[in-house]
Amino acid sequence: MTTTKRKRARDPHAAREAEKYAKPVPSREYILAHLHSTNKPSSLSQICTDFELSTEEDIEAIRRRLKAMLRDGQLEQLSRRRYWPVGRHVLVRGVVTLDRKNIMWVVPDDRSARIVLPHFTDKNVMSGNKVIVSVPDVADDNQPREGKVVEVLEQPDVITTGRYVVEGGASFVVPFSKEFMNDIVVPVDKNMHAQNGQIVVVEISAQHSNRADPVGRIVEILGDERNKEVEIESAIRKYRLPNSWSAELLVEIKNLTETVPQDAHANRVDLRELPLVTIDGEDARDFDDAVFCLPTSGGWRLYVAIADVSHYVKPGTALDHEAYNRGNSVYFPTRVLPMLPEILSNGLCSLKPDEDRLCMVCEMNISKSGKISQYRFYPAVMRSKARLTYNKVASILQGDTMLRTQYAALVPDLEHLHDLYNVLREERSKRGAIDFETVETKILFGKNGTISTIEPVERNVAHKIIEECMLCANVSTAKFLDKYKIPSLYRNHQGPLEEKLADLKVFLREIGLSLGTGKKKQPEPFDYGQLLEQIKDRPDYKMIQTVLLRSLCQAVYAPDNIGHFGLAYDAYTHFTSPIRRYPDLIVHRQIKTVLSGKWNEKVCTTTAGNKSVEKLDEQLEEVAQHCSVTERRADDATRDVIMSLKCQYIKQHVGEVFAGVISGVTHFGLFVELTDYYVDGLVHIANIDQDYYVYDAIHHRLVGERSGAVYSLGMPVKVRVDKVNTDELKIDFTLVLGARAQKKAHKKTQERKKQKQKKSKRR
After folding, report:
1. 217/202 Cα distance (integer angstroms)
2. pLDDT at 111
3. What's 177's domain CATH number?
4. Closest to 327 measured CA to CA, from 574, 108, 611, 562
5. What is the CATH number of the domain that holds 683?
6. Same domain flag for 206 and 306
7. What is the span of the domain harbouring residue 727?
8. pLDDT by residue (tens digit) across 12-70?
9. More exposed terminus of the chain, fewer Cβ within 10 Å: N or C?
10. In a domain, 266, yes or no
11. pLDDT of 334-387, one tens digit each?
12. Per-residue H/E/C for 569-617
């Protein structure tokens, strides 16, 4: 008896099926039992493999049976055409959220894995809604759970921005946010006398239903056209960014001044004579770190002094609640939404020159080889000797005579920092930390508030000096927390996931490279660093770097330490920016708990009241998730504002041709970044050539079936600006020239001609 026959013989209804059909396939009962036993949704191909069905006749028969089972309500079809028995579901409570790809998710209250909502989700469901979803009771580690909303528990007040439109006797707002699938109807008596085309803020008073669009009222008119201030206000409302201080908080801070009380100096190390300096950008207003280093017989002693925010922001206060709610400061091109009120962020906590300030100090001994041999933490009072900028420090180190004279007393200290930096960079390279070269841009505005230019931000040696000093302090902090087994927050960065790694290896192999993993299943940071060094002179360096970068996960906060892959640290955390990041504030509190002797293995007093370690772990898990979310929220909001401003900037160049580089490849087209403007737009696949293009995801390219033309990541092209939609933040390009693609296409055409000629001769 063949294997297939033995497999089918296990079907308890095989005899019945054999009587009905000349060539029977597994019975419905057998299929359902099999799916239940595997506890995993299965595709048609997987089901055929499981039942050892290989002939075209058998495959077509099982396909028809599955279709019939779908029709009769025995199976349901999940995403990616996977089959699952109807009725095996659990109910989960959670909150709806919308990610940057406009995919709706539900974040469960029990903090289990997120649940994706399909694109055909009921239009009544919006981001921020508290819902109950029905989820298949299935364990599929490789795919996200897919749910269906069965009840909306709570629909909080929704405020958004959009363009007010009067058309055909009707008035409505077209929302800028893509989470709104419908326009918002605005009655005439609720429009605040807004004019057609104005940018407004609208509050929804009646949620949409299957029969009617949502109804709202205008609560604010932002302006006639989208500008930098309008964009910021829109982003604040779209991402629900906290933008006001509570009355309770204002009461708490009303007596604060920018002068540190004398009694606050008690039980602190006096470092006011130490020549600590701050080094930041020209437009910085909150100075949260100061540095100083001096050579020793064994290497250097490095002092990193960080603003002691925890002295002022106590657990359980209104100030602490607001800082937690915000999670971090949000930096827009012309405005900052601070995590803390300005009296603290730019005043009392900021390490201003010639002002007494409270700080937490990480003092480290670093060897001549760049290794941290000792470290200690303590609260101190300091007095910054200068507010320096990156450009000034770089110029001083390059020999600028005027600046070296102006800061003569500090020049030796800056040179010591530079010497230390050189050995730290060497150690960084040996450690195997990944050093991607990315370009950040800065938008410059003219007198009328419009964009004058977009230029790259150049990182000089001073940026890198401060970066290395902060890394030393952060990794020492992680070691400290680990030493005392203190529940806290780590900054984790996971290595590449299996699926992405497999695709990466295929891509590299195709271009004659490898990640250098050998027999190792998982690459190490050193492998990435070594490969980047190997390809630095290649013309396709940027393309390869982009692919390597996209193979890695995003860094997140977590109470459990798994290390930082990109920096090649076994343990890493954030300690150096408590003015603008809530996790850093948590870490400061934990350090102080140990220093005060209040820490033990059962109780911790750093949160609101005494907490058991078990309870603290639960609380920190929640804090970690929240801060990771607020971090992404801030990134998305600033990205929206910058993209909108870039749209307005490039709108004046519609019809013009620019040089660019392919920055992304999808099945629907090419994303191109303009070389001199750092603006991204889309070349839709319909606007490429008169050809049918196949998307090659592994190699990040589109390939023409007839012409053989290839458009791949990193390829230089020329594009024409066709259309700019400032409301939807879309820029459309048309491909004018893709040099390499055209060359390859021509080569392919010539080869085909030669083959045809050879065939003709044979005849």
Report:
1. 6
2. 65
3. 2.40.50.700
4. 574
5. 2.40.50.140
6. no
7. 653-753
8. 878 887 877 777 888 888 888 888 787 677 888 889 888 888 888 888 889 889 988 88
9. C
10. yes
11. 899 999 999 999 999 999 999 999 999 999 999 999 999 999 999 999 999 999
12. ECCCCCCCCCCCEHHHHHHHHHHHHHHCCCCCCCEECCCCCCEEHHHHH
Which residue among 137, 154, 171 closes a domain? 154
132 in any annotated domain: yes
80 and 203, same structural domain? no
Using a 10 angstrom Cβ sphere, with 0-12 exposed, 13-18 middle and 19 or more buried, the burial of residue 321 is: middle
CB 304 within 8 A of CB 291: yes
Q: Please state the domain count of the chain.
A: 5
Structure tokens at 454: 């977009």
Residues 150 and 164 in one domain: no
Cα 741 to Cα 109, 525, 673, 718, 752: the distances in Å are 50, 34, 17, 12, 16
Least Cα distance to 313 among 565, 586, 56, 55 occurs for: 586
Distance CA 77, CA 63 (A): 13
Whether residue 240 is contained in a domain is answered as no
Per-residue confidence band for 606, with pLDDT thresholds at 50, 70 and 90: very low
Burial class (CB in 10 A: 0-12, 13-18, 19+), 404: middle
Inter-axis angle of helices 582-595 and 613-651, nearest 10: 150
The pLDDT value given to residue 604? 46
Question: Does 187 lie in the same domain as 102?
Answer: no
Report how far Cα 62 is from the mean position of its chain's Cα atoms. 43
Tokens of residue 696, six digits = 């090659």
Q: Residues 606, 611, 614, 620: what is their CA dihedral angle, to the nearest 10 degrees?
A: -40
| φ, ψ of residue 667 in degrees (nearest 5) | -70, -20
Q: Is residue 323 part of a domain?
A: yes
Place of tokens 């095989």: 14
Contact yes or no for 116/98 (Cβ under 8 A):
no
Closest C-alpha among 261, 359, 260, 367 to residue 592: 359
- Same domain as 106, residue 119: yes
Beta bridge partners of 151: 132
- Out of 479, 513, 546, pick the residue that ends a domain: 479
Contacts within 8 Å (CB) and 24+ apart, 520-523: 522/495, 522/496, 523/495, 523/496
* Rounded Cα gap, residues 277 and 303, in angstroms: 10
Pairing of strands 387-389, 372-383: unpaired
User: pLDDT tens for residues 549-601?
Assistant: 888 888 999 998 999 999 999 999 999 999 999 999 999 999 998 998 876 65
Give residue 610's pLDDT band: very low, low, confident or very high (50, 70, 90): very low
Residues whose CB is less than 8 angstroms from the CB of residue 750 and which lie 6 or more positions away in sequence, other chains included: none
Q: Are 472 and 301 in contact (CB under 8 A)?
A: no
Pairing of strands 680-684, 730-737: parallel
Structure tokens at 602: 């059962």
pLDDT more than 70, % of the chain: 88
Please indicate, yes or no, whether residues 443 and 312 belong to a single structural domain of this protein.
yes
The answer on 326 and 431 residing in a single domain is yes
Residues 62 and 14 occupy one common structural domain: yes
Q: Which amino acid is at 311?
A: H
Q: How much is the pTM?
A: 0.78
Find all residues with CB under 8 Å of 159, minimum gap 6, and list them. Answer: 201, 202, 203, 204, 219, 237
Distance CA 64, CA 422 (A): 69
pLDDT tens per residue across span 530-550: 888 888 888 778 888 888 888
Going by C-alpha positions, the residue among 303, 189, 185, 322 that lies closest to residue 250 is: 322
Q: What is the pLDDT of residues 691-745, one digit of tens each?
A: 888 888 888 889 988 888 899 888 899 999 999 988 888 899 999 875 444 445 4
3-class DSSP state of 148? strand
Per the structure block, which two tokens stand in for 94? Answer: 């959670």
What is the number of other CB atoms lying within 10 angstroms of the CB of residue 54? 11
- Please report how many Cα atoms fall inside a 13 Å half-sphere around the Cα of residue 224, on the Cβ side: 1
> Side chain identity at 184, as an amino acid letter?
I
